[in-house]
Write a structure and sequence with these properties.
It is built from 21 helices and nine strands. It is α/β, with parallel strands linked by helices. Strand 1 and strand 2 form a beta hairpin. Helix 10 crosses helix 12. The radius of gyration is 22 Å and the shape is globular.
Length: about 425
């Protein structure tokens, strides 16, 4: 597969190369598994995001791009962007150019419904997507890949994933998305017509060897796994959604999308970007986030199937408190005296890392970091802060979810025309001298 310069080698090749490090295990970041690897002593390592940027051939979100973002949108960049939690992109600069000129684009993101409740590792990225939608005033499509979860998990039945889909849709809606601008759909229920036409077109350009090379599949993996990339790719193209973008194929086929996603999903969209020009579609742009680590610390990722790794959106205040106190990895010292003398390490402390995601006030966050680093704040105090923040966040979510009826879910999942304005004050490109 050829995309842009810097196209990474296959995931399997990277893993094999890393195994040469004696005594260590490889960093492994794929759509199916995330691990920072371990050092020679078996200690978990954080994910090396700079390395991923180099291997995947993406671009870092630098200061110049943040300045450009604020200039074009009139909005201060989101705290995720300011703090490097959203750190990498593919052609976000081109999307900003379009927005500046008043040219249309849409947002696309998704969720694989593998359990009946989402956790904060799921909802926090959706909060960022919601913010992007509000800043740009553009339509958003949210793909619920219930077909993928069934295909990749031998223990799930179709009835299971369909129930999870409905519950996850309610969770996503409860983040606060605008029904007038948002379409949520289940693959099992929606795929057909123009959407399926694009799946067929895409699949014609992805070879078996390409799917295996990119995702590490082998001949024992079912054909659904090999084919799913074509399904996930189809949401990248406006022609898949005639209810939103109209039936004029020429007009719709010129509208690109911006995909906010975690960096592990990039493999799917490298293939999409490779195929798009062959179909005379624009390449999707991407904006990549880091992972909210599991409670156990660096190099881990929250798991919907492992309750002790995550704060779930159905958790009670007591459960949140108990999980943080019992499971949240601490960067503090073993005793109060040592903490006051030596200080703690906020860069590995899970309570502080969660505050980086949750607290919007940069000055407050920096004060906490310095106090913890210099020993003026104890681990218990830091944990109390994140417990309160998480309890308030989950409580607000649960209150909104209590008002999200089946009728509301039905409306979000009904194919329909969406209401959006884009940039109300576009800047026209300067006329060219002949």
């Amino acid at each position: 597969m050829a995309d842009e310069p810097g196209q990474p080698p296959a995931l399997t090749q990277l893993a094999l190369a890393e195994q040469s490090i004696v005594g260590a295990t490889a960093q492994n970041v794929t759509p199916f598994d995330v691990s920072g690897g371990t050092d020679a002593e078996g200690k978990p390592l954080p994910v090396d995001y700079n390395r991923l940027v180099e291997e995947y051939g993406t671009k870092k979100i630098d200061h110049a791009l943040l300045v450009r973002f604020e200039h074009v949108t009139g909005h201060k960049p989101h705290r995720f962007m300011r703090r490097g939690l959203v750190f990498s992109h593919r052609e976000l600069d081109l999307i900003l150019n379009r927005h500046e000129r008043g040219q249309p684009f849409f947002l696309y993101t998704g969720r694989g419904p593998s359990s009946d409740s989402m956790h904060i590792g799921h909802t926090v990225p959706f909060e960022f997507t919601k913010w992007l939608q509000e800043v740009f005033d553009v339509p958003l499509v949210i793909m619920l890949t219930d077909d993928e979860k069934y295909i990749f998990n031998q223990g799930l039945e179709l009835d299971d994933v369909q129930k999870f889909t409905r519950q996850n849709a309610k969770d996503i809606i409860s983040i606060g998305f605008d029904v007038k601008k948002t379409f949520i759909f289940s693959d099992l229920e929606f795929v057909g017509g123009p959407f399926y036409h694009n799946i067929v077109k895409i699949s014609k350009h992805i070879s078996l060897n390409q799917a295996q090379h990119t995702f590490g599949f082998n001949n024992s993996d079912n054909i659904g796994k090999h084919h799913f990339c074509a399904v996930q790719s189809a949401s990248s193209f406006a022609t898949s959604f005639p209810a939103i973008f109209g039936t004029d194929q020429k007009k719709a086929s010129s509208i690109p999308c911006l995909i906010p996603c975690a960096i592990d999903q990039d493999a799917y969209f490298r293939i999409t970007r490779d195929v798009a020009p062959r179909l005379k579609y624009p390449k999707p742009a991407l904006i990549h986030s880091t992972f909210l680590p599991a409670l156990q610390g660096a190099g881990t990722k929250m798991s919907a199937s492992k309750d002790h790794t995550s704060i779930f959106m159905k958790d009670t205040p007591k459960q949140i408190k108990d999980k943080i106190n019992k499971h949240a990895f601490s960067g503090g010292q073993d005793t109060k005296e040592l903490q006051e003398e030596l200080g703690g390490d906020p860069e590995v402390d899970i309570s502080f890392q969660y505050l980086k995601f949750m607290l919007d006030d940069d000055e407050e966050l920096e004060n906490i970091r310095v106090a913890y680093r210099t020993g003026k704040m104890l681990t218990g105090t830091l944990k109390q802060k994140i417990i309160k923040v998480l309890q308030d966040y989950v409580k607000g979510f649960q209150e909104r979810k209590g008002k999200t009826t089946d009728e509301v879910v039905d409306e979000f999942m009904r194919p329909r025309k969406l209401d959006f304005r884009g940039n109300p004050n576009p800047v026209q490109p300067a006329a060219q001298n002949v």
